[in-house]
């Protein structure tokens, strides 16, 4: 029988092909399940609460967006944090937090606590703002075109809560060549424990 004949035959006996797929899926889900005539063919799924607990242990909570009213943000943040993060403000250079921070640790969003940058990717750009060549993961940052002040820049925001963080420029160091120029006011810092 030629190869073409074989494939046509497989299509004609579609019922059997489906049966094979079910069998494969069963093996893939749990190859170590002991054969049992009376037992369940597939492992039971954990209850939703258990699944949620496992997911919260293994996945960052950032999958959930943080959406709050303007009034709620205003009540939670200092006036400067509110102006920078919710009104796309910019702190004056060399006046905000962390531009000269050199300790090892994690920088997170001041609004929602999302981990954004690591100290290993921070560098001294001499500009008076904390500068990083990459975020901890691409997904934690949203980029937006910013044409204010007669310039064309790329604004960066926290992907989880939409906080304005700063801008990204193509004049950073290797390995990315990017410079995430971030308002320290938009960040909170967690030093590594020794
Ligand atoms: Zn955030």
TrEMBL record:
One of its GO terms (molecular function) is peptide-methionine (R)-S-oxide reductase activity. Keywords: Metal-binding, Oxidoreductase, Zinc. PROSITE patterns: MSRB. The active site is at residue 181. GO terms for biological process: protein repair; response to oxidative stress. InterPro entries: Met_Sox_Rdtase_MsrB (IPR028427), Met_Sox_Rdtase_MsrB_dom (IPR002579), Mss4-like_sf (IPR011057). Binds 1 zinc ion per subunit. The zinc ion is important for the structural integrity of the protein. Its EC number is 1.8.4.12. It catalyses: L-methionyl-[protein] + [thioredoxin]-disulfide + H2O = L-methionyl-(R)-S-oxide-[protein] + [thioredoxin]-dithiol. GO terms for cellular component: cytoplasm. It holds the Pfam family SelR. Its cofactor is Zn(2+). Residues 70-192 form the MsrB domain. Zn(2+) binds at residues 109, 112, 158, 161. HAMAP family: MsrB. Belongs to the MsrB Met sulfoxide reductase family. This is Peptide methionine sulfoxide reductase MsrB. It comes from Pseudoxanthobacter soli DSM 19599. The gene is msrB.
